[in-house]
Amino acid sequence: MAFTFAAFCYMLALLLTAALIFFAIWHIIAFDELKTDYKNPIDQCNTLNPLVLPEYLIHVFFCIMFLCAAEWLTLGLNMPLLAYHVWRYMSRPVMSGPGLYDPTTIMNADILAYCQKEGWCKLAFYLLSFFYYLYGMIYVLVSS
Amino acid sequence: MSANLNPSAGYNLNATQNGGAAPPCQNGPGQTYPSVYHAAGYYSSHPQSYPPVMGQGPAPSGKAPVMNSQYHPSYYHNSHPQPVQPTVRAGPPVYDAAQTQVSQSCSATGAPPSSAHHAPQHPPPFKPLTSYPAPYYAPYPASQGLAATAASSAPLYPVASYSSAPGANQYSTVRSSQAPQAQLYQGPPGIGAPPTAVSTAPCTYARPPSGPQVAVNGQVSAVSSPVLQHYDQTQPVVTQSYKALDGDGAGERPPSGTPSNSVHSSPGHHPGPQYGYVANSGGRSSTAAPSSSSSDDEDDEEEEDEEAGADSSTTGSSSPVPNNYESLEDGSYPDSSSLPPPPPSSKAVPPFGYSYPNLHPAYQQKPASRTDTTPSYGGCNPPGYQPFSQPFPNMSQLSTALGGLSGVPELQVEGLRPVNLLQERNILPPSPLPDPEPNLSADLRKVNCSPDTFRCTLTNIPQTQALLNKAKLPLGLLLHPFRDLTLPVITSNTIVRCRSCRTYINPFVTFLDQRRWKCNLCYRVNDVPDEFMYNPVTRSYGEPHKRPEVQNSTVEFIASSDYMLRPPQPAVYLFVLDVSHNAVETGYLTIFCQSLLDNLDKLPGDTRTRLGFVTFDSTIHFYNLQEGLSQPQMLVVSDIEDIFLPTPDSLLVNLKESRELVKDLLSSLPGMFTHTRETHSALGPALQAAYKLMSPTGGRVSVFQTQLPTQGAGLLQSREDPNLRSSTKGVQHLGPATDFYKKLALDCSGQQIAVDLFLLTSQYSDLASLACVAKYSAGSIYYYPSFHHVHNLPQLEKFQKDLQRYLTRKIGFEAVMRIRCTKGLSIHTFHGNFFVRSTDLLSLANVNPDSGFAVQMSIDESLADTSLTCFQAALLYTSSKGKRRIRVHTLCLPVVSQLSDVFAGADIQAVTCLLANMAIDRSVSSSLSDARDALVNAVVDSLSAYRNTSNLQPAGLVAPSALRLFPLYVLALLKQKALRTGTSTRLDDRVFAMCEFKSQPLQHVMRLVHPNLYRVDNLSDQGALHLNDRMVPQPQLLQLTAEKLTREGAFLMDCGSLLYLWVGKSCSEPFIRDVLGCPDHSSIPQNMSQIPELDNPSSARMRTFLSWLQESRSFWPVLHVVKDDASAKTSFFQHLVEDRTESAFSYYEFLLHIQQQMSK
After folding, report:
1. Beta carbons within 10 angstroms of residue B19's beta carbon
2. In this predicted model, which residue has the larger pLDDT, B1090 or A72?
3. Which of A135, B232, B306, B1099 is in the most buried spot, having the most CB atoms within 10 Å?
């Protein structure tokens, strides 16, 4: 049993995924608030938009770490989400600042439903990957 | 009864004092508002309040930024304080919280934060200008300091000063409505002690049921005529009170006082004792039922959340007052269409159905359609039921009893009659399509909202989303909420609304008994306030179902201060004018100035109306019009990177005080820039300046732009490739290039500023980006391609007419519109110019009578347990006279469970409009070809769905009669500038067409999509319409195909804002001579746009017909006379949508295409 770079990557990913789970929960709550009229869309977009890039960057960061650690399976599992993030950010509305959400279109029922669904899916993904990283970390620690 | 007499005397006293100080009886509310609105006084006397502020010495500099940051949140937080509201209602200790809110928003509103923010940072970079008055330099820095202090004057109106203000306590009590009402009424002892009235109340109520039952029926017809009479009486009285108000600067008075004033002003109006009684019990009822009020009110997400305490009841009345002040002051009452319909003579029927809810529909319908009274059907009615049900004869009971079942079978059958489109050559009806009639009982239909104002794509609402999906038709509403119309105006302190969903009481609610009504949207049972028991129209007590609110589906309320976030703003207009070389070349400036000069007195507003001007090229020019100057001063700001206001308080001036200066400026403005060489345009900075100038008050900014913005923030690049104009592949750049204009619009919207854009250009100006500034701030967009005052006369005339209408039309400020619908339905998407603030709330900085809205709906829950659905649009706005008003429209539609019924009830015009809106969204978000495919698929899918329902499978392309025009309209849509491909279309033209579809009301869109074509050279009086003393000829509607045109005829095409008169080459000489006043065809001038007034019958007929067409719209369309050989021919022929073009199907080909798609 040795503390390898791969094990370090898994530990780091574990911590960061925990952070991402919080992001996802925050996202879900924010859109629920919008749907139930508690918040103004302008305010809500202003709070949500700065969080989009950090979330994506965290994910990109540990993907790169896995790449360096040559954890191909883990990297492969993360590729779809990575690709989705890239696509999502490429197809964002015309905006001068960072972020994805436009207060003028956010209240459209389709977009609202999409964003909510996106939040739930991501939450599920992060939760599953959290346990996968836990497993991966132990496996790496034990096997090496 | 003695207790009863006392207050009545008090009220009579009031009546005589009308318009004066707060009436004694109203000690509570009457004086409370003014004292609380001390802040309001501050607001309206804004300019005067500066000097003392200045004198306060060094300003706490830290304050200004704080203010800035505070303002935004406070505005929005205020508008969504649900978490706060319930606590506010809970009890006195929390009142301070509510006050804090109010005061914050008030003080924030008053101070001009932006100026303070910027002033100290920038040395005045003034460009010395010849016309610039030298002494001006000196005071300038001082005024900067002034601005800073002004902004920091927030401490002057801190929270503390509010709570210590006399009456603040009472105010909060009013807001929190019911709980400790006693405080309110502590003033006059007469009112304070009405417990005896309480006890008398029941016995008064008890009387009617036991007493003259038969008389109720017998009086029915008699009642209706006194109603009319009564209007005539009321009208002048109300006028008087309005005048009085205007005279003493009523705008500055808190409007809460106004309603009661106008009420008391008509002494003959209310029988004293009764009225006093009403007032008393109104006050009491709120004390009596505190628990009920505080329990369920938490979702008071009011239009502004300020109306939380809307139930505070004192006195009130309703009087039908014409909507526009002009007609009010004329003294002539508007046409009778605005009158609430006389009590339906068949209203004795509802109880009948009521007592037998399970009657066979056919049977139920029979009595409904009869106008006989009791005796005739008494035979089949068990007598025992009659007395029970008669006290509340109301059509809303009909609604529950009969529901949508009692339909008109003929309509259904007609709507479903299969039509083989391929064989039906003349698909178009001979006269314009009639408005759809929902399949409702006659009584409900009579009170339903006018289809011009409010209509639904499906007049039979499908029961479930699954059924809707099967029908493949879009479900949505089309609204024209602020249409010019006369409607009953209700002045009442108690605006009766559902406690849980806040729906306004409407004709479709159910009165369970005299004291309770059931909301038709959420089905909650509510109490009828005592004030509502008195009907000012019939001057009777105990007939809540005869109140105008319950008799009309379109009403307007004068709102109390509960519906205000801040004191009603004055009318403020700012004109931002492009004066670059390009702009001067087009010559629009002269026309604009002339038009404004002519209409200066007709601008909607009161004594507080303010006006300002900003011009821009590569620099921004402000105009100091402060009263007392000998001539307008021009201030030039060349620092466009960080724009600031040179003298914040003298740029927007009171029109009344500075009228001469404004006139001076308008007459000299066109000459000032004739020799300018400046070609750049700094539109972005100019808009930022306008935002700063307007943000303390809100109002309307009219921007005139003639080219692509080339300098400063928001500069744009040309994105159009002329070679791709006629590409079939798809069109790029339909969306904005930058979000600068959108962000600015959102900021403006937050400060209640609407930006209207007039684009007068000859080259590409990226309307797709510029339009955002109007779109999201609820402005309007006008576009005049290749405008030139000499070379393009038709555009010039259009501009003049639009401007005339624009300047004088009604306007509503700081408006919000909420659309509520029956539980189970929800709003999916909004279309139009606005900002969507929450799922059902639109924020409209300005609302104008020419804008329409579309709403897509979805069905969340099954509507199986209801037979009727209702939609209610409530528009809360500040009128140009500084009154807060709420205009409420309610539409009621039946629910059906059969697919065939859904098809039968399809309103094809509304469907087309909604589809157009959806297609435009699609083409911006996805691509144009996607949108076009979606439109074709909409036809294919719905016709396939219909084919699958009907078992018979006749050959050909079969559509239900209700949808027979669907393919035609969709084809017409595909050939519109907005959505066509293959035909050369400039990007700006396309984008403008898209904007029009999204923001115009239905009638206008339909005329654009499918113009009406008439043959007019042989107009005759046969089948003419008799209107007053005129005979309006009604020529047959022709299909839009060249096949219908003949060289021997003259044809009129009505495209909404344009009328084409096409004169054939060999048109009959008499027509050309008599109507056009020319000897022969060749001598008709090229740019003829007037029909001369000639004294002969055919000319008279033609002119009557034209003016009849023009009356049907709010603006004056431009007439083009198109000669057969003229180049204008192409623009005429592009509207012939049934014909084949090089890139698009003809109608018949399109039908074949659909048939082919369906058989796939």
Report:
1. 19
2. A72
3. B306
